[in-house]
Design a protein that fits this description.
248 residues; 79% helix; mainly alpha; single chain
C-alpha cells in the first residue's frame, strides 16, 4: 500500500474518499477538506495532500460536460490571480510550522463565516476584481493546508448566484488552484511515487462518488443547495477544530 498504510486504514480512507467525492459531485467543493480532516484522524495527512489535489483535477474531467456554460470565468481568473500571489509563501510557512496550526486558524474563520451566513446575511453590493483578488489571496494561504476552497465557497455563498454557476465556478477555480499549488508541493518534497500509486487506487471511488453526487445535484432546488453549502461549511469548520482538540 502507498504511504505504508495498513489494510484497515486504507479501507477507511477509501470509504472517506467515496463520501468526499459525492459531496464534490453535488456541491462543487468540500472534497479536500472532508478527506484531509478524516485522514488526519488515522495518519499524517501531509503526504496525502498532493493525492487529494490530483483527485480534484481528475474529478473536473468527469464533471466538465455538466458544468460547461455555468462558469463565471471572470470571477475565476481574479480569484486565481490573488491565490497565485499567496501560494509560494503559504506553502513554505505550512511546511515550517505544521499543517495543524494553519488549519486551526482557518477553521475558526470559516466557523464564524458559516454562522453569519446561516443568519441569512448576504452581500448587498457587487464585488469587483480587487475584492475577488483579496479573497483569492486568503484562499491561497488556506490551500497550503488543503482547504483553499472553503473561504471562496463562503464568499460566494454570501452573494446571489445560481446554484449551477456557484457549482461550476467552484469546480473550475479549485482545479486551477490545485494546478498552481502542485509544483510548490513537489518542490517541498511532498510529491513522490506513492502519490502516483495513491491516485491510481483512488480513481474508481472518485468516478462513482462524483457520478452519484452529480445525479443528486440535478434533483436539488436552489434553496436546498444553498442551505447544504452553508451547512457543509459549518460542519467542516467544526470538524477541523475537533480534530485539533483530539490531537492536543
Amino acid at each position: 500500500m502507498p504511504f505504508d498504510l495498513g489494510p484497515g486504514t486504507a479501507a477507511a480512507l477509501a470509504f472517506a474518499l467515496l463520501g468526499a467525492a459525492f459531496v464534490r459531485g453535488y456541491s462543487g467543493f468540500g472534497f479536500s477538506a472532508i478527506f484531509i480532516a478524516f485522514a488526519a484522524l488515522l495518519t499524517n495527512p501531509l503526504p496525502l495532500i498532493p493525492v487529494v489535489f490530483a483527485c480534484e483535477m481528475l474529478m473536473t474531467v468527469f464533471q466538465a460536460r455538466g458544468i460547461r456554460g455555468h462558469i463565471d470565468w471572470r470571477r475565476v481568473l481574479w480569484l486565481l490571480a490573488g491565490a497565485a500571489i499567496a501560494l509560494p509563501m503559504s506553502v513554505s510557512f505550512m511546511l515550517s510550522v505544521g499543517e495543524g496550526t494553519v488549519r486551526v486558524v482557518i477553521s475558526c474563520i470559516i466557523l464564524v463565516l458559516s454562522l453569519v451566513l446561516l443568519s441569512g446575511w448576504t452581500l448587498q453590493r457587487k464585488i469587483g476584481p480587487v475584492g475577488h483578488s483579496g479573497v483569492g489571496i486568503i484562499s491561497g494561504i488556506c490551500n497550503s493546508a488543503g482547504i483553499g476552497g472553503l473561504p471562496v465557497a463562503a464568499f460566494m455563498s454570501a452573494q446571489p448566484m445560481e446554484a449551477a454557476v456557484f457549482r461550476g465556478t467552484m469546480i473550475v477555480y479549485l482545479t486551477g488552484l490545485d494546478m498552481i499549488t502542485m509544483p510548490f508541493l513537489w518542490a517541498g518534497g511532498l510529491v513522490t511515487w506513492d502519490t502516483a500509486r495513491g491516485i491510481a487506487l483512488a480513481f474508481p471511488m472518485l468516478a462513482l462518488g462524483v457520478w452519484l453526487g452529480g445525479r443528486q445535484f440535478l434533483a436539488a432546488s436552489p434553496s436546498t443547495f444553498r442551505r447544504f453549502a452553508v451547512m457543509l461549511l459549518l460542519a467542516l469548520s467544526i470538524l477541523g477544530l475537533l480534530r485539533a482538540i483530539i490531537r492536543i
